User: Fold this.
Amino acid sequence: MPYDLIIIGSGPAGYVCAIRAAQLGLKTAIVEKWPTYGGTCLNIGCIPSKALLHASELFEQAGHGLAPFGVEVSAPKLNLKAMMAHKDATVKANVDGVAFLFKKNKIDGVRGTGRILSAGKVEVRSEDGATKTLEAKAIVIATGSDVASLPGVAIDEKRIVSSTGALKLSAPPKKLLVVGAGIIGLELGSVWRRLGSEVEVIEYLDRILPGIDLEVAKQFQRLMEKQGAKFHLSRKVTKAETTKNGVTLTVEPVAGGEATTMSGDVVLVSVGRRPLTEGLGLKEAGVTLDERGRVEIDAHFRTNIPGIYAIGDVVRGPMLAHKGEDEGMACAESIAGKAGHVNYDVIPNVVYTYPEIASVGKTEEELKGEGRPYKVGKFPFMANGRARANRTTEGFVKVLADEATDEVLGVHMLGAGVSEMIAEAAVLMEFKGSSEDLARTCHAHPTMTEAVKEAALAVEKRAIHI
Assistant:
């Protein structure tokens, strides 16, 4: 029987779309070329990286962070094999969970590489080369993204690695060179720094973490340097040579000047990601792509071809798993005739280093660029009682509110555990709340979240504890 919906790709966007569609009564199939479900996020991205980030943070804390609390332990010993086993077990639990949800919701999983033949038809090619054609009323493209390459730097996943290879190193490199000071590079660089590597980061721009509030990024860079990381900004890598003992990079100033070389045991290339559309038959099917190779869609995730939709990293917007999940739900609801919607102004962004960075909404730079008058409230964790008790006083909370209406336009946090705290700001902004609303909401004492309330109070210059 034909399906109501076929989804190509089982990452966060695809599998959430499938589950929501099944909940709405649509007969659904999902096509996946990998042996396990979950896409990049669950298999080689978000989940395994967070497992290693947490484990490496515990390792560093055991070695350097317990004595001030009166806990004396001998120097910890790294068992990287066991740490990697923890990562792999975490991945397996998550991908097995998705498989269970497919079975629970009566979603048909089809193994193989999907290719759109036309509206309503998807060809699936299995590993042995056999093909079959599935038919459906609607098709959703949810193929995600892949690692972006850098001219002159060939990734071999041994000496020159992408994020995939960086999650599988057999030992901490003596020296790790990270090309790209974005989220992925800084997260994985911090993992290996904690485990003993010397880490140097090379960035094309004159700042780290493009897109993050500049004040937050600058303070974060100082904290990373204090931890031992080194940064080379406004530099571009033009060539990489692999030797028996490591890799030598040719590095040039972006503004022009003399080239220099840098050597390391391993190079991590983390210069972004690109939408994965090759081999899908989109050109033949007539599906329009934009200048960056993303599938063009309207407000309801429809492409220019009736019956074909697209969501997640393969379309416009931030390449974030939770953005893809929200699009997956909204797309399924739209296909089922309901009012699916995603508020792109309220999508949190997190850097899972230590300390963490979390933000939602506009940055100061964006508001200045728009010419929109705004007010700022800031509160440092140094003045927070729980932060002092926990010895997690680095960082601050910043609240940006419209000067005339007091509506909160952006919230930016740098500190321990702020990835869990940012949801409060997202909920407030989803309801177009004001800094006054946030300031008058009672927060438990003593908690780190009191810094959020104090930052909201500071918008009107009435913070209590500074």
The radius of gyration is 24 Å. The domain at 160-271 is CATH 3.50.50.60 (FAD/NAD(P)-binding domain).
